[in-house]
Amino acid sequence: MAPDRQPRHNPRMNPFDLDDDAGYQRWRDEKLTASPATLDELIVEVNHLSSPSRAEIERIQHGCARANMAIFATRDTAGVDKAVLRDFAARFGLNRLNHNEGADDDGVTALSVVEPEQWRKVYIPYTNRPISWHTDGYYNTEEQQIRGLMLYCETPAFEGGENALLDHELAYIHLRDTDPAFIHALMRPDAMTIPANEVDDHIERPDRPGPVFSVTHADDAQGRSRPRLHMRYTARGRNVVWRDDQATSAARQCLSEFLHSDNPAIFRATLESGQGLICNNVLHDRSGFNDSDTQKRLLYRLRFFDRITVA
Fold it and tell me: H helices of 2-114, where?
């Protein structure tokens, strides 16, 4: 393997077309050759988030081209202005923030354990409980899918809070290599539905059906349009309705077994102060954690409707 390579895309090729097996095989081989063997290959030291160098930006873009994600580690560990985080993300084409309900007015969400009387306590990201495999914003509309995601650790938990990370394109490869019918099933427009969210007899959000895998086109750094794979997924057992057919059930089972395996493509890391994840909304989970009286977990989350712009 040559882990420092990145895939060379043919703009006329759509490797996600189930009728184009030759195109898929070419893309697959390049993808697997370029994929990093360890998470260490994706860690980029950034001296100052407010003024990253061109080389630092390019190394992060390179990681995202190979694995749809990179970890940045900065020396700015004394606290960071949220405006700096937004500006840093913008250097990678991430501009359109999702101002979700839990976010502050600036669109940045502070993730920490909230007091029992706060309304956010019913949502797991604001507790210390584990979170199962998912991509962010799986309950959003088709027009507002979360394509880019950035997490920044201000303070880690006293113990726990590890993330597992998986490039969703590798999950696609695993499923398609096992049985292309799995991909066909998970691309159906009603493959996975998030039921309506009702609060005090008021519908806060209607039913949200949609595919697990979908393909859009996005420009690269040279302005060339290329097919991009997007994944919308949650492993939650409640408040999700899956299409009731054999192919969908078999695809879900295959994916679940892969996500709970010890496959080396699944990376595990606990973000420390000054470290962050920037990605194209890859699959991830979070283990449970415990705070102490003097050390309470605080992460900032930025969700974007954009993908990361890479070379």
Answer: 21-34, 54-67, 82-90
